[in-house]
Specification:
mainly alpha, 64% helix
């Protein structure tokens, strides 16, 4: 698990990891437009990450299992860190953290928001209420099932940005998300198997 977490926690260097331009006459690239893939991914993934953080806080208080609590703590720290970086990009570009555009419009997605689920993989309000009502093994299993769906969709969004984005530091951050979340999906699948369960269809 530590190696997986390191993938997420090691990304702060990505923001400042751009190569300095050679020559004193070099100028900074223009900031992305508010309807660009760069801005859209930053906003949407920040929203997606916030729900993962919220779900992790819920399960942390619904079980005493150290493995699940430790994994939830890792998600809270890693995704809060990444969310801050995404918001930082928008701030650097002088762009608003919110928009009237539909979520994932930058990648041509047509997902219809419902019951609090704004994007693919996001849990509904009904599912979050159910998670809050469970405890022990039941809470662990449901959390892991919800988080696998959340990670699958998050990794797909991050990959779409890797393929379409133009901002190099943000693309490196997105690639780190893809790699880490695929590894965590396998970890969660194994944790479910240990509890006699499997990912939800």
């Amino acid at each position: 698990m530590a190696a997986v977490v390191a993938l997420g926690l090691g990304v702060p260097a990505l923001v400042s990891g751009s190569t300095p331009a050679s020559g004193s006459a070099a100028t900074a690239p223009a900031a992305p437009a508010t309807d660009s893939a760069d801005a859209g991914f930053a906003r949407d993934m920040a929203t997606h990450h916030q729900q993962a953080i919220d779900m992790s806080f819920i399960v942390r208080d619904r079980t005493q299992d150290e493995a699940v609590r430790g994994f939830a703590f890792d998600i809270i720290n890693t995704q809060a860190n990444q969310r801050g970086m995404l918001m930082g990009f928008l701030d650097q570009w002088g762009l608003s953290q919110s928009t009237t555009a539909k979520p994932m419009a930058w990648m041509g997605h047509t997902y219809e928001a419902h019951d609090g689920s704004l994007m693919p993989g996001m849990a509904t309000n009904t599912e979050l209420d159910k998670l809050r009502s469970l405890s022990g093994r039941d809470a662990e299993v449901f959390f892991l099932q919800l988080m696998i769906k959340h990670h699958r969709a998050g990794a797909e969004m991050a990959q779409a940005y890797v393929d379409a984005g133009t901002n190099a530091p943000e693309k490196r951050l997105a690639q780190g998300m893809v790699d880490a979340q695929h590894a965590e999906i396998q970890l969660m699948t194994d944790m479910l198997a240990e509890r006699g369960a499997q990912p939800a269809p």
